[in-house]
Each structure stands twice: as C-alpha cells, then as structure tokens.
Design goal:
heterodimer; A: mainly alpha; B: two-stranded antiparallel ribbon; 69% helix; disordered C terminus
Chain lengths: 81, 233
C-alpha cells in the first residue's frame, strides 16, 4: 500500500481522536458550571442555558474543525491521486 | 463508503449550468416556507385560529430570544434572524423525508448562509453607526486591535459555516455508516439524535447571527418598544 494513503488515514484518525479530548473536557466543565449555577439560582435558568448553548457551540467548533481536517485528508487530499 | 461528503450530485443540467441536488432541495424548502407562510398569513383574525396561534407562538418566541440577546427591540432583526432560523431548521429536519439529504450537509449552502450573516452584520453596523462610526469600532479598545478585529470577522464567518456543515454532515455520515453496517431500524435512535442536533444547530446559528449583529451595533440600540404598542390591540 502507498505510504501516503496510510499516513492520511492515520492522520485523520489521530486528528479526530486527539482533537476530541480538549473539547470533551471543556464541555464537561462548562456543563458542570452551568448546572451548579442553575442549582444556586433556578430563576436564571433561561439566560444560563442560552449562554451555555452558545458557549458549547463555540467549544464544539474545535472538535468539528478536527473532523473537517480528517475528512479533507480522506476525501480531498491534494497529495493522493 | 465511497461517496465523498464534499462532492455534489448533479440533479439536472440547465443549459451549460449543472444544478446539483442540494440546490433543488433548497429551492423546495424555500418554496414550501414562502407558500406556507403566505397562505397562513392571508386570513389573520383577531380571534386566532389554531394555525395562526402556532405562527404567533413561533414569532413571539423568536422575538423574545432576539430581545434577550440584543437587549433592544426585535423588529429590525426579526426578518433576517427568523428566516435564518426557520430555513436552517427546515433544512436540517428535511432528512426525515426518505431519500432527501439536508442541503446544510453540503458546504456550499452553509457558505451562502454564513456569507448572508457576514454581509448583514456589516449592513446593520453601518446603518446603526454610519460608515465612519462602524469603521471606528474596529479600533475600539486601541488601534493595536485593528488586525485582530479584521481577522475575527473572517474567522467567525468561517467557523459559522464549518460548524453547521460539520454537525449536519457528520450526522448524515454516521447514519449512513451504521446503516451499511447494521441494517434496517438500527439507525433510528441516531436519526432521532440528529433531529435534536439539527434543532440545536439552527438555534445556535440564529443566536450567533444575532450576537454578531448586536456586536456590530455597538451602543446605538433602540430601546424596547412599549408593551402597550406590542401587545394585541
């Protein structure tokens, strides 16, 4: 098998697997903080959950970037014909 | 697994122009939304029918979200943000119809939506602050921030595009993989999860568009109109 293809597949797998670690930890922390805040102040739940959703989307974007890089490596790799 | 998610199937060719499948689906959704809202708002009554009540519920909840985000009257943003939300929601949920792929699972649709938000942000900012006033907001804390603010305009548009694309496309992708591995009925929980993801992503897209517009407005915002004027007459 071509080494370039092998490297692309390995690169894609590593991009997704390592790229998921950071956002997963960050989302866990964000949700935990939001739940604590809602438990303290249930009347602010609406504002908190809206901010939480937007923040989670921001964090999740990092993981999505890694996914897009992986897909580019697998399907639109300029070095593999 | 042979179909690349970055390529488009051509539905038919219109002279020299190849029309792809997502474009056809997009126009279908647009026609359905336009005709549906046109028919439903044709006969509005003071004593609301069920359909009118549902529409009013949608509009008022969109309005309240916009007002909570912008901290001002929702009227100038209702058309853009509401349309974006409803279109993205319909586009994400169209996967319920068998054989139809969401157009948001292709990069071009998301690029068009993000470009709309980009242009609208600049438009609202110039309308609220004037051209010179809007340009001055780029040097807001100090002139050192100008390159960073310029780069931010581009990166947040890109991330808006890639976020929607990645979420919807990965949902379609995972369902396809599970279907090819496990067969009938197994991907149904994943498809239900896709519906949730689609709704959340539509919400996030609309909220982020509102946040960007609110940031472009700066301090020049209208105060919320009186409840007397807004309530049912």
């Amino acid at each position: 098998m071509d080494y370039l293809k092998l490297a692309s597949i390995l690169g894609a797998a590593m991009a997704v697997s390592f790229g998921a670690i950071g956002p997963a930890l960050a989302e866990g922390r964000a949700v935990a903080a939001a739940m604590e805040a809602i438990a303290r102040q249930p009347e602010a739940a609406g504002t908190l959950s809206r901010t939480l959703f937007v923040g989670l989307a921001m964090i999740e974007t990092m993981a999505i970037y890694c996914l897009v890089i992986a897909l580019l490596l697998l399907f639109a790799n300029p070095y593999v014909q | 697994m042979n179909a690349s998610p970055l390529l488009n199937q051509v539905a038919f060719t219109l002279g020299p122009v190849a029309v792809s499948v997502p474009v056809v689906v997009t126009w279908g959704i647009m026609a359905a939304l336009a005709v549906g809202s046109g028919v439903l708002t044709r006969a509005l009554h003071l004593r609301a029918s069920r359909a009118q009540m549902a529409l009013e519920l949608i509009v008022t909840s969109i309005d309240s979200q916009i007002e909570a985000t912008v901290q001002s009257d929702a009227a100038p943003f209702r058309v853009l943000v509401g349309t974006l939300f409803l279109f993205v929601l319909a586009a994400n949920w169209i996967a319920v119809i068998p054989g139809v792929e969401p157009p948001t699972a292709h990069l071009e649709t998301d690029a068009a939506l993000a470009a709309t938000v980009f242009v609208a942000t600049i438009g609202y900012g110039i309308r609220a602050n004037g051209l010179w006033g809007y340009l001055r907001t780029f040097a807001e804390p100090s002139w050192v921030m100008v390159p960073l603010n310029l780069v931010e305009q581009i990166t947040r548009t890109l991330s808006l595009m890639v976020r929607l694309f990645g979420n919807v496309m990965s949902g379609v992708f995972v369902v396809g993989i599970v279907l090819s591995l496990a067969g009938l009925l197994v991907p149904i929980p994943l498809m239900a999860l896709d519906l949730l993801t689609g709704a959340v992503q539509a919400y996030i897209f609309a909220i982020l568009a509102t946040v960007f517009i609110a940031a472009a407005l700066g301090e020049n915002r209208q105060k919320p109109a009186d409840t007397v004027l807004k309530g049912p007459v």
